[in-house]
Amino acid sequence: MTTPNYATERETTEGRVFTVTGGDWDTVVSGTDPINDERIVVNMGPQHPSTHGVLRLILELEGETVREARSVIGYLHTGIEKNLEYRNWVQGTTFVTRMDYLSPIFNETAYSLAVEKLLGITDEITERANTIRVLMMELNRISSHLVWLATTGMELGAISIMLYGFREREYILDIFEMITGLRMNMAYVRPGGVAQDVPDEAIVKIREFLKMMPKRLKEYEDLLSGQPIWIERTKNVAVLDVTGCVALGVTGPVLRSAGLAWDLRKTMPYCGYETYEFDVPTHPDGDVWGRYLVRLAEIRESLKLVEQALDRLKPGPVMVADRKIAWPAQLAIGVDGMGNSLEHVAKIMGQSMESLIHHFKLVTEGFRVPPGQVYVAVESPRGELGVHAVSDGGTRPYRVHYREPSFVNLQAIPAMAEGGLIADVIAGGASLDPVMGGCDR
Amino acid sequence: MTTPAPSEKPGGGVPAQAPPVGATSGAPAEYPPASTAGRGMFGIQGSGDTSGFGGLVRPRREVEGSPRPYGGYFDEVTDALEEAYPAFADAVEKVVVDRGELTIHVRPERIAEVCQVMRDDLSLRFELCSSVSGADYLGADQRRLHVVYHLTSMTYRHRVRLEAAVSVEDPHLPSVTAIYPTADWQEREAYDMFGVVFDGHPALTRILMPDDWEGHPQRKDYPLGGVPVEYKGAEIPPPDRRRSYQ
């Protein structure tokens, strides 16, 4: 209380308010009168290193016990859903990929599946395009789970795992860059297929990754699974059983860690997941430890899926045959990034007037989508990622709503945190793996 | 000037001094295409039209109920609901089957009762409320604000969509938070974005927009907004002021 830089106090109508920017906790709490104020309200975030982005938690504490917890979101709201209504259907991919920035491929795939269902071309998606989608989604799932492992480790005091997790994730992002031209926010999966084919070097690199990763996973487990502090901080912490999960709409690894093997890839398959062989890992306890084990096991399952996808990758088109829908796929990676392929530009400018007209119409207007509405859901690394897309028959989405697992799952924070210790709020919140970009959209 | 410019009269042609249509407000992109009930082509509205396409009107058809049999599990679900819910005939406006999805349009005041039956009846068992969202059908429906519920039955692996329409003047319908606690934040989002009021919600406040925000941004008559941006020496107008083709 002596150094004004660390904690200043002021009187408000609600009582005394301290603004803490650092320093010693004891000095801060010594400012309150323990006899009259048994409970203090701590405002954690929206900029706090352990709240996974701009999540704000309002905690009512009695000593170190959390009596009430409320989360406040919306700090990263960017109006993506509104913006989509002002672009054409293909441009939508570029927007949605930026929602949940740790799993862009899932956002794109869910959107593309919705648009394809509206167009009625779900069955025309080529086998190679579907296989590439599965391949990319599973690589993305691994990278997303790695970030979860890295950041959760860091938040619970295991700094080393942070470095390792991000190192391996970087490897996957390199693969993404090779295939799509971008590390993140790739806008690679498009309505009708994918933007371009997978180059051969990328396949070599993925094979190397498949060889390397099981060893690395073993290292993570050596580092964490037997470590007493990690076990203490995760076992029987932030427990949420199946009933609680379903009532609160929590899906994904958190639901599976409570023991229900609900995975949309198995229960309501899409992109041909029903033809792949993989297991749905579960854990009976529903605590942070269970979520850790489930996510590690899911990385292993994803590796199996990536391998199967690589094995069945046969040459063929990666876009539907309909040239109107496929137009944006006539792209190539140049020195300055992805753009129209030079061959295509030469053709429309030099040889074919008709092509030029079509090009102009497709670039300025885009294609039309028959009116109607659909709901399509995929299993993202965080749970059910649903897209409710409405078309009015125009060239732009009439309404696109994302059922974001981060948004829905964050509702579980009071159920997990209240009655527990303040340190377990961090563990519980982190175990939900919220990504605020997706949550706030 | 009191007399309108020739370009503002219908069929008046484009004189040289006419202010550029589409550069100011009233720009074609200001509203998403269908909000003006599918009028015009190439984004032409009012004057500036020498092609005649500005007079083109694309009628928007009402969503019609589907005839039985619906196919798939849809008959099972509707039959089970009809059996378990005595007020079915009164509560359900129409049943639509489109693109392999079942939509049950429910009278808004009945939505909580229907959800209760959908969750609890042994032959329905829609345990999970996947999503609650809104959509604004401005110009297409008198009760323009639609609230859309996506329910999932984990037991039977079924999905169903419930849709309830309310008007802007009376945007009230009962909250389903008592039945599906997961609807809490999603109803707050629908309130925030569309101004739909869910009666009985424990704390219906804004969730994504700031608390003191005015208006409901996802409504179709709410402009996108934006500021002009300079890029390589040129000024790029905000997206809803750009020239656009539709």
Q: Would you mind describing this structure in some detail?
A:
The complex is a heterodimer of chains A (441) and B (246). With 441 residues, chain A is an alpha+beta fold. Chain A folds into three domains: 66 residues, no CATH class; 314 residues, Cytochrome-c3 Hydrogenase, chain B (Orthogonal Bundle); 42 residues, no CATH class. Chain A has 19 helices and twelve strands. In chain A, the strands form five sheets. A three-stranded antiparallel β-sheet of chain A has the order 3-4-5. A three-stranded antiparallel β-sheet of chain A has the order 10-11-12. Chain A has a two-stranded antiparallel ribbon with strand order 1-2. The longest helix of chain A is centred in the first third of the chain and has 29 residues. The mean pLDDT of chain A is 86. By secondary structure, chain B is α/β, with parallel strands linked by helices. Chain B has a domain of 122 residues: NADH:ubiquinone oxidoreductase Nqo5 subunit (Beta Polymerase, domain 2). Chain B is 15% helix and 21% strand. Chain B contains four helices and nine strands. The radius of gyration of chain B is 23 Å and the shape is globular. The chains are: A alpha+beta (441), B alpha/beta (246). The interface between A and B is large, with 49 and 48 residues. Chain A: InterPro entries: NADH_Q_OxRdtase_suD (IPR001135), NADH_UbQ_OxRdtase_49kDa_CS (IPR014029), NDH1_su_D/H (IPR022885), NiFe-Hase_large (IPR029014). Chain A: Its main location: membrane. Chain A: Keywords: Cell membrane, Membrane, NAD, Oxidoreductase, Quinone, Translocase, Transmembrane, Transmembrane helix, Transport.
Largest interface: A-B, 49 and 48 residues
Q: Which CATH class of the largest domain in chain A applies here?
A: Mainly Alpha
- Terminal CA distance of chain A reads 39 Å
Please write the CATH class name of the domain at 78-199 in chain B: Alpha Beta
| Run of helices and strands of chain B | HHEEHEEEEHEEE
Mean pLDDT across residues of chain A:
86
Sketch the major β-sheet of chain A: 3 strands, antiparallel
Morphology call of chain B? globular
Oligomer: heterodimer
CATH architecture of the domain at 78-199 in chain B: 2-Layer Sandwich
Our estimate of the beta-strand percent of chain B is 15-25%
Query: Which fold name is given in CATH as the topology of the largest domain in chain A?
Result: Cytochrome-c3 Hydrogenase, chain B
Which class of secondary structure composition applies to the elements of chain B? alpha/beta
What's the Cα radius of gyration of chain A? 24 Å
Q: Estimate the mean pLDDT confidence of chain B.
A: 78
How many independent structural domains of chain A? 3
What helical percentage do the residues of chain B reach?
10-25%
Number of strands of chain A: 12
H/I helix tally of chain B: 4
Number of H- or I-type helical stretches of chain A: 19
Give the CATH H-level superfamily of the largest domain in chain A: Cytochrome-c3 Hydrogenase, chain B
